[in-house]
Design a protein that fits this description.
elongated, 102 residues, 4 helices
């Protein structure tokens, strides 16, 4: 049972052997995953500020950003929402500019 998680994380393959000939440990797998986790935390902080500016619940979005697969979905929703808001503002500027005589 203790061997299940390393096998799951390596898709059933043997973890690479260290130079001393020992099998890779859970700490080795954690160190490989650490940069991804740090990037995701930085993105969660940025998205917290963006959610607050968009008038949504920033805590819910931030917590969902820290969940690996849900974070991808929440990130996509945030990007699309920001894109639609930007398009609406550009259309408003364009229509306002068309109304004023030159």
């Amino acid at each position: 049972m203790t061997d299940y998680l390393p096998r799951l994380l390596t898709h059933g393959r043997q973890a690479p052997r260290s130079p001393a000939g020992k099998r890779g440990t859970m700490e080795d797998l954690f160190i490989q995953f650490l940069p991804t986790m740090l990037i995701q935390v930085v993105l969660a902080v940025v998205f917290f500020k963006l959610w607050r500016k968009l008038g949504r619940n920033p805590w819910l979005g931030t917590i969902l950003m820290l969940v690996p697969l849900a974070g991808l979905f929440v990130s996509g929703v945030l990007h699309l929402r920001a894109l639609f808001i930007l398009a609406d503002r550009l259309n408003a500027l364009e229509s306002r500019g068309a109304d004023t005589p030159t």
